[in-house]
User: Fold Periplasmic chaperone PpiD from Shewanella septentrionalis.
Amino acid sequence: MLEKIRDGSQGVIAKGILVLVILSFAFAGVSSYLGSTTDVPAAEVNGDIITKAELEQAYQSERSRMEQQLGEMFAALSADEKYLQSIKQSVLERLVADKLIDQAAKAMGLRVSDEQIIAAVKTEPAFQTDGKFDNDRYQAILRQLGYQPQAFRDMMRVDMTRRQLTAALVGTEFVLAGEAKQLAELQGQTRDVRYLAVDSAPFLATAVVTDEQVKNYYDANQGQFMSPEMVSLEYVELNAADFAKNNPVSDEEAQAYYEEHKAQYVSNEKRLAAHILVMPGSDEAAAKAKAEDLAKQLDSGADFADLAKANSDDTLSAEQGGKLDWFEPGVMDPAFDAALFALNKGQHSAVVKTDFGFHIIKLLDVQPGVTVPFADVKAKIVAQLQDKKAVDQFYSLQSKLADTSYEVPDTLSETAKAVGVDIKTTPLFSRDNVPAALNKPDLVKAAFSETVMLKGLNSEVIELEPNHVVVVRVKEHHDAGTLALAEVKANITERLKQDQANEAARAKAQELMAQVKAGATDLGLVAKAKLGRGAQDVDAAIVGKAFQMPTPSTSPVVDTVGLANGYAVVALDKVNAAEGVSDELVNALKQRLNAQYSEADYRGLIDSLKANAKVLYPVEE
Assistant:
């Protein structure tokens, strides 16, 4: 049979078929390169494509920027897929805006020449050394960023072309000095007011709410009573800290470790030092010359203690003949330290310079390093060996945890048996009230993921802390929905009672307002002169109301305003002009307004271009 097959494969017909097969594969391969891709783009702007790869690259860059800016806060936020999706959508809208600007610039005939790009590169401070363009630095930075020079220049051309259009628009914006001054005067304005708060608390006792009212409120406001999506989990946990207590260490093991690592338990050599210090003051050269002269005197046989008492600027040690203290290596200034530990007992150094001045150092005595007895370090060694055993056990079990939870993905029973621990469970929780022990961004993300929550499979191994991991699976899942009336009845009742009390407080405030307008002066209103917009000692609602009220003429302007728990009567007596509006404040407001106007202009440009464009967001079928 094999002979016939081999002979048949050498025939003309067989060779022809083989050629056709080879050609079909060849043309299929070529068409995959030359033909149009079948991938659905992220967006299409007037026929120009924004690919999913472009979107993903821009999205990852934005994520990196936000991680650097927000730190741990971003880790918590990123556990919510909806939040990440909103970031991705905003990135896509930015790419669409860039595409619209590119198209508008092209339609207007805007161009950037090679000479302009070269000039921009040469004047970029990042590419300069000592204020001059450094080609080696330029090439190094491009390599670091992963750009080829031509690709970088192309990117700059696109960016500079965009800026021609946006800068021309934004650059035309301006703020009048009078406009900024008027705003400064409005912000600095103060008001003389009187007010009286009517607390709703006294009216709560008489508030009555029927079951029918509760039911009507529930039916009309069901959007307020949505329960979030919730899960309860089963999980298998491995924590090296739990293993340490179950790993006893014998005296023999501890002794053997001590003998093997005895060098670690030798105390450092200590040296008793003395010095003569000459501080430089305003004349460093003179101080150095004095120190060198003292060193020569010592070399000639002068007594160190006598010279220290007579000449050292360290008055405390000078009284002791220059004697300092016992020092271990690394305690003193590096130069002092090096000189001290290079001396033999009784020797003095040459002049040594430190940040304190010029020293001459003498070694008075040496205390050799000694081996710490085993008994003194036994407890520490036992703890170290227990931790090591625990970590070794942890890594061995972590491997089993990962393998078994993956191989048997629809239960944790086999996993728990393999690693010898019990399965733990959690109560139902939402994204906002995760049990404290498991409240880590990666775990929350896994708990509400499609794999765990919807497919019911085990998660991957999730690290909570170093040497502390879990694998989770869903035990119970509740979709987001409307809470039953029975669950929220008490809250609705309290809310409706509060509403009744607030309404009673409002009616009382209306009565008081009428009396104030009629000229009553014995109502106990609190007077506040020169109330500012940022006042902290007055309820923010009263402050806001005071600055919404028109300027009074012959009589006060009186109105009411709702508070968190009640109402207040507010009487505006006088509007005071701002005091001391500085030029600095006016200039700062001009800059702020200019930035706001420029941002509005840019948004207006994008909105205008988008309104006249065909922007599509294809969806994969």
Remarks:
- Residues 374-407 form the longest helix (34 residues).
- The mean pLDDT is 87.
- The radius of gyration is 40 Å.
- The first strand starts at residue 43 and ends at 45.
